[in-house]
Design goal:
Elements lengths: L14 H6 L2 H4 L8 H25 L4 H18 L7 E2 L5 H8 L9 H24 L11 H24 L7 H14 L5 H20 L5 H16 L26 H33 L5 H16 L7 E2 L1 H9 L6 H16 L9 H15 L2 H10 L1 H17 L1 H21 L3 E7 L2 E6 L12 E6 L8 H12 L7 E5 L8 H16 L3 E5 L3 H9 L3 H4 L3 E3 L2 H12 L40
Helix pairs in contact: 3-4, 3-13, 3-14, 3-15, 4-12, 4-14, 5-6, 5-11, 6-11, 6-12, 7-8, 7-15, 7-16, 7-17, 7-18, 9-10, 9-15, 16-17, 17-18, 19-20
Length: 614
C-alpha cells in the first residue's frame, strides 16, 4: 500500500503550523478514491474498538463507558496532531494495570466509580503533558531506557498479573488483596469455599473458546465481535442476570461529557509517578509500532511528533472522562489489513462509536462482564513474550535472567515498581558491559586476513615479545582498574613482553581517572622493561589524553595509526616474525575475562582489519 507524501498543497498553511498540525498536510492532499477504503476499514475497526475499549476500562478499574469515551476522543485528537497515516490509538491492555495501580489506592474504601474516573482523567492529562513536553524537547531517545530483555520480562510479568486479576471476574466473585501473591491466595480461598458462580464461569469459558478457537481456525473472522454478539444473545435467551451473572447495564446516552479533572495536591504524587511510567511504556510501544509500519508503507517516521500526537490524545481524553491511551498494535494491524489509507479510518471509528452512544446506548447493556474478562485474558496472552524469553535463553543467558528479574519485579512488587525495576535493570546492564567489557588477546593465522581472538581460534600465533590486547569499551572510572589489572597480568610473564600493544579502536573515550591510571601503568610497565603502545586510537581520544597535562608520563606511550604499522616497527626493531614455534600461542587472560563460548558472537572477536604484511 502506497501512501501520499505528507506535503500539503502550496499555500494551504504555514510550514510551522503544518509541523504541529499534520492534518493540515494530509487532509488537503486526500484523494477521493481513498474514501471507500477508509470507511470500510473504519467500520471493521469499530467492531474491535467497542468491546476492547470497554474491557480495558474494566482492567483499569473504571466503568466500561469510559473506554468508549476514551476511544472517541483519542481517535479525533490523533487524527489532528498525529503524523502517521495508519497508527490507531486507544485503551491498551499494557496500560490498564498501571492505571489501576495509580488510582485504586486513592479511591475510598468500597470503591467510588466517579472518584476513580476523575483520578484516571487527571492522570491522562498528566501523561499528555509529559508526552507533549518530551516531543517538544525531542526526547524520543528515552524509549531506549527499556532494553529488549527487560521489556520482554516486563510484558511477561504484566501478562501474569492480568491473568491472575481476571480469574475472579471469570468466576463471578470479588476479592480484597494486595500484590500478586495475595491475589492468588485470596482467589484460591474463594474457589475452595464455593464462591464461584457456575453461570458466570460457563459464559466466560465459552467466550474464551470462541475467541481462541476462531483465531486459530478462522483467523479472518472478527473473533471479538463474534464473542460479544454470542454473549449478548446468550444473556437474552438464558436470562443470565437472573442467574447472578453481572452485565454491562445501561450506558449513558449522549456525547462524552466535558469535565475538568481537578484533584488535590496530595494525590498528584502517585498520579504523576504512574503517569511517568505510562509515558515511558507508551513511548517505547509507539516508536516501535510506528517504525514497523513506516517500513511497510515507505513513509518517514517523526518520533517527536508522534509524542505530541499521543500527548494531545491523552489530554483530550482526560477532559472527557477518559483515561491514558497508547498506540494499539492489534487495532493498527486490523486497520492496516483492512486497507486504511489515512486517519479518516480513525475518524470513522470515532463517529460510529459516538452514533452508538447517541442512538442505541443500550445495545450492549446485556453483555456479560465475564465476556469482557475473556477479552482481557486473550489480550494478556498476546502480551506474553514467552517465545522471546526462550530465544534469549538460547542467545544470551545473562539477558534471559535480566528478563526473568523484570518479570518477578512486576509480579511481586507491582506494576509501577516493576517498570522502575525494568528501567533500572536496563541501565545496570549497560553499566555492567562497560565495567567488565569483552577483552581479548589477538593473534594471526597464516593466510587468514585480520587479527582474531586467541581464545576462540587456537591456531592463531603471536609475535615473540608482542602482546596485542583489545579492550572493547571506553576507559572511565568504573573500568580503569579492570584495564590496569588485565594489562599487568599480561605483562607478568617470564620473560616479560617487550610491548603491550592496545588495539585502541573500540576505546571511544578516556576520562581523568583512566588517564591517571595510564600514567601509573606506564611507569610500572617500564620498570619491568615493557612498553605500552596504542594503535588506532582515535585522534579525539588521544587529544583528550594529552590535554590532561600528563605528558611527562603519557608522552612515553607510543602511538600508531594501524596495527600493521605498529607490527612493522616492532619487527624492524627486534628482528622477529610470526610463528607458533618461537612464541607461546596464548597469553591466558584471567578467569572470567572472556565470556564462555556462545555468550558472545564470533564476530565480536574479529578486528576486521586486513592482515597486511607485518
Amino acid at each position: 500500500m502506497t501512501l501520499a507524501p505528507p506535503s500539503a498543497r502550496p499555500g494551504s498553511a504555514p510550514d510551522g503550523l503544518r509541523r504541529w498540525l499534520p492534518i493540515l498536510s494530509w487532509l488537503p492532499a486526500y484523494q477521493r478514491s481513498w474514501l471507500k477504503d477508509d470507511v470500510l476499514a473504519g467500520l471493521g475497526l469499530t467492531a474491535l474498538l467497542v468491546p476492547q475499549g470497554m474491557a480495558y476500562a474494566q482492567l483499569a478499574g473504571l466503568p466500561p463507558i469510559t473506554g468508549l469515551y476514551t476511544s472517541i476522543m483519542c481517535l479525533i485528537a490523533y487524527a489532528v496532531f498525529g503524523p502517521s497515516r495508519v497508527l490507531v490509538l486507544g485503551p491498551d491492555s499494557s496500560l490498564g494495570p498501571m492505571i489501576a495501580a495509580s488510582i485504586l489506592p486513592l479511591v475510598a474504601s468500597g470503591g467510588d466509580p466517579g472518584r476513580a474516573v476523575l483520578l484516571a482523567s487527571a492522570q491522562s492529562v498528566l501523561v499528555g503533558i509529559f508526552m507533549i513536553a518530551a516531543g517538544a524537547a525531542k526526547l524520543g531517545f528515552v524509549a531506549d531506557l527499556l532494553s529488549k530483555p527487560t521489556m520482554v520480562g516486563y510484558m511477561n510479568g504484566l501478562a501474569l498479573t492480568i491473568l491472575v486479576g481476571q480469574i475472579r471476574k471469570l468466576c463471578g466473585f470479588s476479592i480484597e488483596a494486595d500484590g500478586l501473591v495475595g491475589e492468588v491466595v485470596a482467589t484460591a480461598q474463594k474457589i475452595a469455599t464455593g464462591a464461584t458462580n457456575p453461570w458466570t464461569l460457563g459464559v466466560g469459558v465459552a467466550a474464551l473458546v470462541v475467541l481462541f478457537g476462531l483465531v486459530r481456525v478462522l483467523p479472518r473472522v472478527p473473533a471479538v465481535l463474534v464473542a460479544v454478539v454470542c454473549g449478548i444473545l446468550a444473556s437474552l435467551w438464558l436470562d443470565l442476570p437472573s442467574h447472578g451473572v453481572k452485565v454491562v447495564g445501561d450506558l449513558p446516552q449522549g456525547f462524552p461529557p466535558f469535565t475538568l479533572p481537578i484533584v488535590g495536591a496530595g494525590e498528584l504524587g502517585l498520579l504523576a509517578a504512574g503517569a511517568a511510567g505510562i509515558t515511558l511504556v507508551a513511548l517505547a510501544d509507539t516508536i516501535s509500532t510506528a517504525s514497523a509500519y513506516a517500513r511497510r508503507t515507505g513513509a518517514p517516521i517523526d518520533g517527536n511528533q508522534e509524542m505530541v500526537g499521543i500527548g494531545a490524545a491523552n489530554v483530550l481524553a482526560g477532559f472527557f472522562q477518559g483515561f491514558a491511551v497508547s498506540t494499539s498494535g492489534s487495532r493498527t494491524a486490523v486497520a492496516f489489513k483492512a486497507g486504511a489509507r489515512s486517519q479518516v479510518t480513525g475518524l470513522v471509528g470515532a463517529f460510529v462509536i459516538l452514533l452508538l452512544l447517541l442512538v442505541a446506548p443500550n445495545l450492549l447493556s446485556r453483555l456479560p462482564l465475564s465476556v469482557l474478562a475473556a477479552i482481557v485474558v486473550m489480550a494478556a496472552f498476546s502480551l506474553a513474550e514467552l517465545a522471546a524469553a526462550r530465544k534469549l535463553w538460547s542467545q544470551r543467558r545473562m539477558e534471559f535472567w535480566l528478563s526473568i528479574a523484570a518479570t518477578v519485579a512486576v509480579a511481586v512488587l507491582g506494576v509501577l515498581p516493576g517498570i522502575a525495576v525494568a528501567v533500572g535493570l536496563s541501565i545496570l546492564n549497560v553499566f555492567r558491559r562497560a565495567w567488565w567489557p569483552y577483552q581479548a588477546v589477538l593473534g594471526r593465522e597464516k593466510g587468514v586476513p585480520g587479527y582474531h581472538d586467541l581464545t576462540h581460534r587456537p591456531r592463531l600465533t603471536s609475535m615473540p615479545g608482542l602482546v596485542i590486547f583489545r579492550f572493547d569499551a571506553p576507559l572511565f572510572f568504573a573500568n580503569a582498574r579492570t584495564f590496569a589489572e588485565q594489562v599487568t597480568r599480561l605483562a607478568a610473564t617470564d620473560p616479560a613482553p617487550k610491548w603491550i600493544l592496545v588495539a585502541g579502536e573500540p576505546i571511544s573515550d578516556i576520562d581523568t581517572t583512566a588517564a591517571d591510571m595510564l600514567a601509573d601503568l606506564v611507569g610500572d610497565l617500564e620498570r619491568q622493561g615493557t612498553l605500552l603502545c596504542f594503535a588506532e586510537l582515535k585522534s579525539r581520544v588521544r587529544g583528550k589524553l594529552e590535554s590532561y597535562e600528563l605528558a611527562e608520563i603519557t608522552g612515553r606511550i607510543r602511538y600508531f595509526d594501524t596495527l600493521n604499522a605498529a607490527g612493522k616497527v616492532y619487527r624492524a626493531e627486534f628482528g622477529t616474525n610470526w610463528g607458533d614455534t618461537d612464541f607461546p600461542p596464548v597469553w591466558p587472560l584471567p578467569e572470567g575475562s572472556a565470556p564462555p563460548v556462545g555468550e558472545e558472537a564470533d564476530d565480536e572477536s574479529e578486528t576486521g582489519h586486513p592482515a597486511g604484511g607485518f
